[in-house]
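Section 5.1 Outputs to date
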Amino acid sequence: MTSTVDESVVRKADARTHGAGEALGTTGTSGPALGTASAEVTFHLGPAARRELADAARRLGVQEPSVLLAAVLATQFRHTRRENAEVRTAPGRQRVVPVTAAAGQSFAELARAVDTALAAGPSAETTAAAEPAGPAEPGARAGRHGRGVSADHSAVERVLFRWTAAPAAPDPVPATGPGTVVRCHAEAGDGSLSGGLRPADLPAGATPSGWAAALLTLLTDATARPQARLDELALLSEVRRAEAAEAANTGHESYPDLRPIHAAFEEAARRDPGAVAVEAGGRATTYGELDGRANLLAASLAEAGVGQESLVGVCVERSAELLVALLAVLKRGAAFVPLDPALPVARVAVVTADARVTAVLAGQSQRERLADLPAPLLAVPAEGSAPHPPQVEVTLDHAAYAYYTSGSTGTPKGVVIDHRCAAGRLEWLGRRYGLQRGDRVIHKTPLIFDVAIWELFGPLAAGATVLMADPGAESDVVHLSRLLATERTVFAHFVPSMLNAYLDLAPDTPAPDLRWVQLSGEAAGSHLLERFRKRFDAELHNLYGQTETSEVAGWEGRSYPGEGGLPLGRPLGIYRLFVLDEELRPVPPGVPGELCVSGTGGLARGYLGRAPLTAERFVPHPYALTPGERLYRTGDLVARGDDGQLHYLGRVDGQVKIRGCRVETGEVEAVLAGHPAVRACAVSVFHDEDGAAQLAAYVVTDGAHAAGSPAAGGAGAVVEELAAHAARRLPGYMLPAVYVPVDALPYTPSGKLDRLRLPAPTAADRAARSAGEAPGTALEEQVAVLWQGVLGVDRITRTDNFFSIGGNSLKSLQLLNRVNTTFQVQVSVRDFFGNPTVEGLAAAVEKALTDLVAGMTDEEAATLLSRL
């Protein structure tokens, strides 16, 4: 079909209020044209275009109406990502035909399925079968690449379709009605084809005329390439694609004067050495002290062979020593590899081996634990100073840090960021927030998450102060409330789920100087914004980004009129954002597409030692502004709304977010599959009673370890064995909250894992990890009851580890809130984390009660105990 759509007509139609009475003209007799009469968009295929439609039908061995209807279904699928459809044929409207359109399907397959359904479909009204229930994931049912959006997977598209050989009387069925998503009628006559379209239920940003233009563009592409998958078919003409790319390539900023990320700190240290650089554990460290200690450590690193482009592991608790370590590495022209002290030793070993680190800087508390690492361990000096930095030239092209993220192949992957990319991130931060000497920025994000770069180097670049949360206290809402209330604390970052927990559980302590709170890491609901405004007189900024880039988009405001999630917003700083299909072509507004990121100097180098993966994700830019520019494919599905804002919809792969942390389910599956008892496994996401996302592991064990096997000690023993195996190898946020033994994994007819048929975890599944003695005292029994309420588990033993039976950092806050309210004490998160069992928590409560009673009169103590 060689004809094209008249784009000026489409734009006029989009600009008018839908339902305008003026009919639009056509492009001529040889090609399709669009128009609108009332709320209906009309179209016309001239004789040449009609012949191409007929030729395509003959090549596919189907009828012409089947090709047009397949294009209608494919277009609607691309807009809504719903796979199931019911087609009501007119004028015999009692005939309802179920059809499925899916991402992995070729257009030819869909057209043949439609033709078969129309020829042999049911004669009575039916309903397409809904998808079986399962542990809902934060994206829709996967197609070839898992493309999907957050939607009701059992929803059915309802299409009214009529094809007549000549102009027919108006259809008496109402133009719109319950469930009527698309109404299409076509009249074939004089060698041409005319008709009308009335699409409904379109996503924000899409218009009826835009939908119709997409239909005709897709039909043109499909008749030329019928073997192409539905997600490969074009929805915009070449003219509109060029316009979309041009629009995305404008409006960005340029930063020509960037410096390595530690240079601004060194300048601040020279300018004002007495200013406070960091406050941690009640102690203040000045810029001059921090710089001198970092210079001293840099000299030790030189002796250990650390130089330009070396990689150095950093495993130091949150403290001034952490900044000393990071700055010393950068001063040597090397790059740091963050290693959280909470990581299992096996995980640290995997990361340091993959990175081939030259050395590991370890805090005093970590040196014994990491003694068996092959890389030399170096201490961070607690005192001492050197007046001058090492004589090493550090350029923007040198690596600054390598962050390890979850890997889909079963091994974590290192993302290498150079100083140019990192400095661009900090430049935007400095311009947007304008931090000043004396301003405090809270640092509470563990170093293994790159938000820590903002929290540490942002204030240091401005001569401001880093206010550090105590080690292990990043989720202690009482501690955080004190930090937020500290004088001149102006900036803090939260993962949305953590902010929600803070608003639920933290004391209502004023934060008079707080000016900005950033959110990132997971979707944020508009209700969170409303709750935030009731507590804080500060701006809320919802940011979006990846380790491979930076924060590339943002939204800020005090209210949002839409329902559901806050938008990702618009591009930030140097970044240019494109919403593209599988063939890297722009898609229309409102249509889901993969978000792809560009920005000169704003992308990571790639994945350390993984050239094929780097080439797959960092691709040549089809709309480059500079020669050799790359485009990063994020794997995130988004759509551009009618207000120009980007909205997050889901993922194209198996990556999920757990409490803001990026998890590749394939890596968790690979770790579990490494246990000799596991014959097959799958990891999926389910949502607990609070709506929080958690991981569920579905495992098929061999005969000797079958669920309930006497030799294995029963299902609980198997589950406990697998849980311990995972805990030795994975960080806490990647551990499944529940293990579900199954006889076999479900698969689709094409042989793919059918995650929608995985059974939802039950209370019995959660309780399978609880094994041991019953609570031994009345206090332990009371504590166990509180655990049951938080975890939804019927049986709790005195030695169960909270984090091994479905607990996590956010649930620990709920538990401690109930414990402290019930017993009128103050057990901290750190106290609980030291021994997260019923036995340990009961002991902490008893100690707190003893300390409390010691300061009371006998009468006050008796009153307290009577209330308990």
